[in-house]
Design a protein that fits this description.
The structure holds 2 protein chains of 2 kinds. Chain A is mainly alpha-helical. The longest helix of chain A is centred in the middle third of the chain and has 48 residues. Chain B is mainly alpha-helical. Chain B contains 9 helices and no strands. In chain B, helix 3 packs across helix 4 and helix 8 crosses helix 9. Chain B is globular, with a radius of gyration of 17 Å. The chains are: A mainly alpha, B mainly alpha. Chains A and B meet through helix 1, helix 3 and helix 4 of A and helix 2, helix 3, helix 6, helix 7 and helix 9 of B.
Amino acid sequence: MKRNWNNTLLQHLLGELPGPRRKALETRLTDDPQLQSCSQEWQSVIATLRSYQPDFGSGFEQRVMQSIAIKSALALQEKVTWRMMLRFGMSAAAAVILLIVWVYMQEKSLSMEHLLGLAGLKTDDFTNLLANY
Amino acid sequence: MEDLRTLDDGALVGLMKQGRQDALGEVVRRYRQQVARVVIGMLGNTPEADDVGQETFIRFWNNMDAYTHDARISTFLTRIAINLSINEIRKRKRKQEWVSSAKAEAGRQVIDDTMSGQYEREHIEAALRMLDEQQRAVVVMRLIQGYSTKETADMLNIPLGTVLSRLSRALDKLRLSLKQLDAI
């Protein structure tokens, strides 16, 4: 019950209480000294809070602009790095695709041996190759 | 060159969308106090509050393309500021870093000491620190920023009744703490 009157009182102090309920509250306020005292104290707190005017320290605008400049530079750097990596990756992928196409055209096969250039080689070939050294 | 101070918010946004950083500078000048009320109200007068304040404007700048004129700049900035402040408080909790009063004192150095009413401001900030994060958010939005109860509910994504009940509990706590601090 008290909580209901508290909310009604609060709405009244905030100027948001509709007419009929305001009249009921005003009657209640005259009959209830405790609610009246609460009203005065809340009013005082609200007035104190409304006078609260904090501000950031001097040079705040400059700090914001500097932060934006730094973050923009970092973002640009990140963008450039990302683009370079993307280009490198795409070049590598294109090279692999070209290799596959070239191997297929030459060998008519896409087996791993053909792709690695080891097709047709025997163990002896390696032995002979190593024997030269 | 045009005087940016004479332009309205819509024109400034237009310039910002063209990449004009000087237009952002003017937005910062116009709305820094509004953002400060949210951020310092939520986080206290600490170096983190200054960082979150900067981050609010940086996010606004970076999300310029998403910004439409449906919301006022002040509302858009307040939404960013309150979300970043809540995130910062959660981050602090996760790290279990309690901002000691000594650290808060050190942080006050970032704020302009020459401003009037510093004594009263410190009392209000001390009282706000005694509220929990949810109560502080409604107090900052409804009583300090001056949004309506419905706007506060919408911005914090909570029912209207919850705003009122959190506010009344917060007012009771603030009444006691401000009395102790001789601020009312």
